[in-house]
Amino acid sequence: MEISLSILNIDYNHIEEELRKYKNDIKYLHLDIMDGHFVPNISFGPSVVKSIHKENNFIYDTHLMISDPMKYIKDFVEAGSDYITFHLEAVDNVNEVIDYIHSFGIKAGLSIKPNTKVEELIPYLSQVDLILIMSVEPGFGGQKFMESSIDKVSKLKQWKEEKEYSYLISIDGGINDKTIQSVVPYLDWAVVGSYITASENPLENIQLLKHNL
Ligand code: DX5
Ligand code: ZN
Q1: Which of 37, 143, 178 to mutate to test the pocket of ligand 1 (most atoms within 8 A of CB)?
Q2: Are 176 and 195 in contact (CB under 8 A)?
Q3: In whole angstroms, what is the distance from residue 35 CA to residue 80 CA?
Q4: How much is the pLDDT for 212?
Q5: What's the pLDDT at 95?
Q6: Model confidence over 99-122: pLDDT tens digits?
Q7: By the number of CB atoms within 10 A of the CB, which of 15, 54, 187, 201 ranks highest?
Q8: Is residue 4 within 6 Å of ligand 1 at its C-beta?
Q9: Residue 54 has pLDDT above 80, yes or no
């Protein structure tokens, strides 16, 4: 299993230094894009992604928590995204968005909020590269893990095995060395933010997480 590091709450005054800390231990960077409309918070846009992209070799896992993903996908591709994940709740035509992301030759992910049933993903499972289950209400880092997400990732794993689908199963929100234990059998990726970035010993916490993998 891989860790995708959410940098929502790192110190942007010292971004280069912050990212350098993780370069040997973390392969994926999770970029939380918020528009103040789909979620009650605003983060950063493609120009910030582009400027940090030049500095490093991370794989960019962009999580669009925005109301109109079609309008901005191209900008995030050009900014260096390797994966772009959007929300099922945000669009009318899910297939159209998946195809559009794929037209740029990158990976497409689909995410659902805690109140959306995992069964709603079924029509798209053969087409996506990644499913991202939100285990907190999207909008903020540092929230408490919601146990309702355990059943969702477990079903996704079962469907994946039954139908031989290839999507990666990922979870986002409230993951630490304790909460990861209930979901680790079902996951390919875990998105982790504050457990690492708000810690005094971030590299130690990465190792504690990896012990559970
Ligand atoms: C929440 C974001 C998450 C969040 C994860 O809206 O999508 O990626 O930053 O942070 P933690 O691990 O602190 O819950
Ligand atoms: Zn996220």
Answers
A1: 143
A2: yes
A3: 19
A4: 86
A5: 98
A6: 999 999 999 999 999 999 999 999
A7: 187
A8: no
A9: no
The amino acid at residue 185 is P
Considering the candidates 32, 35, 61, 129, report the single residue annotated as catalytic. Answer: 32
189: amino acid identity, one letter: W
In this prediction, residues 183-193 reach a mean pLDDT of 98
Q: What is the pLDDT of residue 52?
A: 86
- Within a 10 A sphere around the Cβ of 204, how many other Cβ atoms? 11
Helix (H, G, I), strand (E, B) or coil at 178: coil
Is 75 one of the annotated active-site residues of the chain?
Answer: no
* Ligand number nearest to the C-alpha of 139: 1
Atom of ligand 1 minimally distant from the CA of 41:
6
174: exposed, middle or buried (Cβ count in 10 Å: 0-12, 13-18, 19+): buried
SS3 state at 59 = strand
